[in-house]
Design goal:
mainly beta; OB fold (Dihydrolipoamide Acetyltransferase, E2P)
């Protein structure tokens, strides 16, 4: 059994454009392989479409676009991270889920984040190992867009 210190929290870690991102497991309902997404017209292009998840319609957002990163072809995404926020359930398209692991969050350095990532959407940073950083997403901030 893995013991998690008080300063550590478990995160679902996933990859987008070569960068690692994390969402707290307390916010993640489940991770599913990218199912058939019914495309829905979206004015801002953030909503990729909807999926049927065991009889429930779940909107699916393009995580890369929400974070202000370079656009990706929807076929590059292998998973949907389904999150709960308030009374909403929303899916985020991600390239691949890397791990579920305990991480110790640190504040984002004053210089912000790299790769044109929307800094407001990042609530912290953590080390996955000596040479890999994980940007911790602020789900509520992302969904306010």
């Amino acid at each position: 059994m893995t013991v998690v210190s008080q300063d550590e929290k478990r995160f679902v870690i996933f990859n987008l454009s070569g960068e690692n991102f994390g969402i707290g497991v307390d916010r993640v309902r489940e991770v599913v392989n990218t199912p058939g997404i019914a495309l829905v017209p979206s004015e801002d292009g953030l909503l990729e479409g909807i999926i049927n998840l065991r009889g429930n319609v779940v909107p699916v957002m393009n995580a890369a676009r929400l974070l202000g990163m370079d656009d990706k072809d929807p076929e590059d995404f292998a998973s949907v991270v389904v999150v709960e926020t308030g009374n909403e359930v929303v899916g985020f398209l991600v390239e691949k889920v890397v791990a579920v692991a305990p991480l110790e969050a640190e504040p984002v350095p004053s210089g912000g984040t790299a790769n044109n990532v929307n800094a407001e959407a990042i609530e912290g940073i953590a080390r996955m190992d000596e040479d890999q950083l994980v940007l911790l997403m602020n789900v509520d901030c992302l969904l306010k867009k």
